[in-house]
């Protein structure tokens, strides 16, 4: 039995699920259980989140039961995993016993083959791991058919698919501004970053239409209004996080924020000719980020 213990927003849920699904390939008979207990008992310091992973065509066996949620939530509290941890962590439980395995255990399935019940807690933000299993993961993150229909009815969808010169820009503010814990850890990107990224894209790909996806439309319209080739997507047009991510993945190029949400938007972009601009500094601390991709341009 393998429990994928979800937490955080959509981007982090995707990392967690992908890691669990990759590990399951070594144990095909293992039951994959999605645990959403975190969303019923979130720490006060965390940004309020909801389960959103089911907006994709993911494959799993079942959700955790009420009794399982109680036990896993108790284990999570005892584990005391930091909110954001770029290193792989793997914890296993068997009945009332807890097994704590080092990071290397995730990459060495043979070392855990005799454990009957396993819980994966961390975010598993590892671009190398995902790139190695890209063909396995991509089909799992196709949006549900009903949401695809909603998306195709949006005016912005036609704009993106009818052009070969569209670059997405993601501006993440929200909790990076309003939540002191997130703000202290991440911080927001400057306009200098976005302007430099826009200039680089146009120097390499020619004139572009830039579509800004953001959780702060008012701020984005104020800052980008001077650029005639910039369009701010209307956040009120959809209520599903996956739709903006899907739209970003359809653009020719991507300028991402220090956010796993737009990271996935760029990673899911199937174009072989895409240019992706990513921030060189992901965290305020300047700590190394395991989300770097060799083919992406860091600024």
Automatic annotation (TrEMBL):
GO terms for biological process: carbohydrate metabolic process. This is Predicted fucosyltransferase. One of its GO terms (molecular function) is galactoside 2-alpha-L-fucosyltransferase activity. Keywords: Glycosyltransferase, Transferase. It comes from the Bacteria. It comes from Escherichia coli O127:H6 (strain E2348/69 / EPEC). InterPro entries: Glyco_trans_11. PANTHER family: GALACTOSIDE 2-L-FUCOSYLTRANSFERASE, L-FUCOSYLTRANSFERASE. One of its GO terms (cellular component) is membrane. The keyword Glycosyltransferase applies. Pfam families: Glyco_transf_11. Transmembrane segments: none annotated.
């Amino acid at each position: 039995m393998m429990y994928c213990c979800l937490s955080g927003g959509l981007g982090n849920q995707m990392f967690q699920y992908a890691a669990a699904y990759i590990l399951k390939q070594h144990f095909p008979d293992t039951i994959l259980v999605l645990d959403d207990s975190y969303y019923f008992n979130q720490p006060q310091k965390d940004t309020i989140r909801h389960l959103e992973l089911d907006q994709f065509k993911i494959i799993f066996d079942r959700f955790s039961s009420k009794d399982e949620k109680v036990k896993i939530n108790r284990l999570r509290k005892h584990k005391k995993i930091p909110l954001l941890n770029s290193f792989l962590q793997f914890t296993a439980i068997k009945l009332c016993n807890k097994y704590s395995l080092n990071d290397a255990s995730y990459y060495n399935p043979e070392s855990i083959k005799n454990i009957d019940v396993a819980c994966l807690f961390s975010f598993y933000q590892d671009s190398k791991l995902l790139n190695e299993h890209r063909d396995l993961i991509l089909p799992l993150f196709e949006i549900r058919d009903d949401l695809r229909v909603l998306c195709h009815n949006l005016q912005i969808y036609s704009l993106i698919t009818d052009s070969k010169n569209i670059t997405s820009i993601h501006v993440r503010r929200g909790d990076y501004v309003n939540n002191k814990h997130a703000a202290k850890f991440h911080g927001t990107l400057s306009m200098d970053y976005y302007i430099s990224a826009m200039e680089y894209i146009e120097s390499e790909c020619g004139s572009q239409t830039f579509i800004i996806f953001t959780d702060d439309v008012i701020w984005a319209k104020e800052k980008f209004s001077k650029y005639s080739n910039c369009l701010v997507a209307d956040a009120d047009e959809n209520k599903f996080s996956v739709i903006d991510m899907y739209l970003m993945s359809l653009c020719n190029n991507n300028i991402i924020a220090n956010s796993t949400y737009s990271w996935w938007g760029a990673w899911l972009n199937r174009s072989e000719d895409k240019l992706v601009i990513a921030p060189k500094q992901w965290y305020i601390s300047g700590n190394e980020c395991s989300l770097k991709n060799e083919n992406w341009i860091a600024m």
